[in-house]
């Protein structure tokens, strides 16, 4: 499919690549309202205030994309990074004009004046890349441009100033050399979790720009699970189907918890207390897909805000390791980003005046591993383990059936990663 997309004659192409958790590949473009080089400097000391607008945009987009993916993945595991994807699409919007820009604006719920969003993106990048003793979270952006290709100065300046993009020149006519250089860069910045990300044929002589954004996270639970208690247990995939998995156990622990209506929610904090994993577990015999389709993103955020610390007798969740890969072009088309992929209608004149450009592909790849000590991410996978018996009147959270999980910033509820575990034995 990639080769087919790239083989248009006399039309230069963009590629958007995503790879999550550890990596996010982005192909980006430059946009509206960038003739003004008087960049506004804004210091925000309160993370919650700093992330207010971009968190809402990120989370709305997160759940809209989730439900698009769900249509084709009802019985499959899902995992991706909405924050990584948002970064890409914001840069794409920066280079768009006319109807192309309007479509992206609507899909991302952007205000017409995006200056504050850009400022928040810049501050958020610095906030997430601060040195932390208790966990690792890093975001690295790069803009790969064909050698001697005439890019507008404003585009380069905005990519550097607001998205901290490294600007690198490649010769895409030497496609394999260019592909290998980008792959090696991603491999390095994802702590060797994403290897050979760009497949053969994904870059050719018509490629003009590839923008990459690598995201890597490694965190340790504040309350680690006891390895000696990890044991085999059954995971109920659906009615009539079970699989055996390794379940992790933590006994007698105080955590933020909520049981309401048809679901229960728990928050597992990482050391440093800036990030946490949220697990949303439907009640037994409740289909997770049907339940989530009843809820809006605001419902879920409201539930998270209602979490209160409670002492639980036991928390039981699966160990899991997951990798996912998506071609997001068709999903974005359904969501309303149409002109950007059309070689005749696309308007990315905010990048270059030399020739017509359009997006040839949007790809996302992700990895996640969850164990007794914590979480490491570069994409997604799931496995769940549990106890064999539960005594009456005990307060036990046992994720032995399909569940939704989020990794988020605690101050702002900005969702960095989202996933659904339908069957933790399937990668």
Q: Keywords, please?
A:
single chain, 427 residues, alpha+beta, Antithrombin, Chain I, domain 2, 2 domains, nine-stranded mixed beta sheet, 16 strands, 33% strand, globular
Mind sketching the topology for me?
Layout: H1 2-6, E1 12-20, H2 47-50, H3 52-72, E2 78-80, H4 82-93, H5 98-107, H6 115-128, E3 135-146, H7 153-163, E4 165-170, H8 175-189, E5 207-220, E6 231-238, E7 241-260, E8 263-269, E9 275-282, H9 288-293, H10 297-305, E10 308-318, E11 320-327, H11 329-335, E12 357-370, E13 374-379, E14 396-398, E15 403-409, E16 415-421
Parallel strand pairs: 1-5, 1-12, 3-4, 10-14
Antiparallel strand pairs: 2-16, 3-5, 5-13, 6-7, 7-8, 7-10, 8-9, 9-15, 11-12, 12-13, 15-16
Structure overview:
The chain has two domains: 2-219 and 322-367, 2-Layer Sandwich (Antithrombin, Chain I, domain 2), CATH 3.30.497.10; 221-321 and 372-421, Alpha-1-antitrypsin, domain 1. It has eleven helices and 16 strands. The protein has helices at residues 2-6, 47-50, 52-72, 82-93, 98-107, 115-128, 153-163, 175-189, 288-293, 297-305, 329-335, and strands at residues 12-20, 78-80, 135-146, 165-170, 207-220, 231-238, 241-260, 263-269, 275-282, 308-318, 320-327, 357-370, 374-379, 396-398, 403-409, 415-421. A hairpin with a 5-residue loop joins strand 8 and strand 9 (275-282). It is globular, with a radius of gyration of 22 Å. The two termini are 23 Å apart. Residues 1-42 and 378-392 have low confidence and may be disordered.
């Amino acid at each position: 499919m990639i080769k087919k997309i790239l083989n248009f004659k006399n039309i230069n192409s963009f590629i958007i690549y995503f790879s999550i958790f550890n990596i996010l590949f982005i192909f980006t473009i430059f946009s509206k309202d960038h003739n003004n080089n008087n960049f506004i400097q804004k210091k925000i000391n309160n993370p919650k205030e700093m992330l207010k607008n971009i968190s809402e945009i990120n989370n709305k987009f997160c759940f809209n994309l989730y439900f698009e993916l769900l249509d084709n993945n009802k019985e499959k595991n899902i995992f991706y990074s909405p924050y990584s994807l948002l970064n890409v699409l914001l840069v794409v919007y920066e280079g768009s004009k006319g109807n192309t820009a309007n479509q992206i604006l609507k899909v991302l719920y952007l205000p017409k004046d995006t200056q504050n969003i850009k400022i928040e993106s810049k501050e958020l990048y610095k906030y997430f890349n601060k040195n932390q003793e208790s966990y690792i979270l890093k975001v690295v952006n790069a803009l790969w441009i064909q050698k001697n290709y005439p890019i507008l100065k404003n585009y380069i300046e905005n990519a550097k100033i607001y998205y901290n993009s490294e600007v690198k020149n490649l010769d895409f006519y030497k496609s394999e050399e260019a592909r290998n250089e980008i792959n090696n860069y991603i491999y390095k910045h994802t702590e060797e979790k994403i290897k050979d990300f760009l497949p053969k044929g994904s870059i050719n002589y018509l490629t003009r720009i590839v923008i990459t954004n690598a995201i890597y996270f490694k965190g340790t639970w504040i309350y680690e699970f006891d390895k000696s208690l990890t044991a085999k247990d059954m995971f109920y995939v659906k009615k009539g189907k079970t699989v055996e998995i390794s379940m992790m156990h933590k006994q007698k622990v105080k955590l933020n918890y909520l049981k309401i209506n048809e679901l229960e929610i728990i928050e597992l904090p990482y050391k440093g207390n800036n990030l946490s994993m949220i697990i949303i577990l439907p009640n037994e015999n409740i289909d997770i897909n049907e339940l989530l389709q009843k809820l809006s993103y605001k419902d879920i955020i409201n539930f998270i805000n209602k979490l209160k610390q409670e002492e639980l007798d036991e928390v039981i969740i699966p160990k899991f390791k997951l990798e996912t890969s998506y071609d997001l072009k068709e999903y974005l088309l359904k969501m309303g980003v149409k002109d950007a992929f059309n070689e005749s209608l696309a308007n990315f004149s905010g990048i270059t005046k030399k020739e017509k450009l359009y997006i040839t592909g949007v790809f996302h790849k992700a990895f996640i591993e969850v164990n007794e000590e914590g979480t490491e991410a570069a994409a997604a996978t799931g496995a769940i383990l549990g106890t064999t018996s539960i005594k009456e009147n005990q307060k036990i959270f046992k994720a032995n059936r399909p569940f939704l999980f989020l990794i988020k910033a605690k101050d702002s509820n900005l969702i960095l990663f989202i996933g659904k575990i339908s069957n933790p034995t399937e990668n």
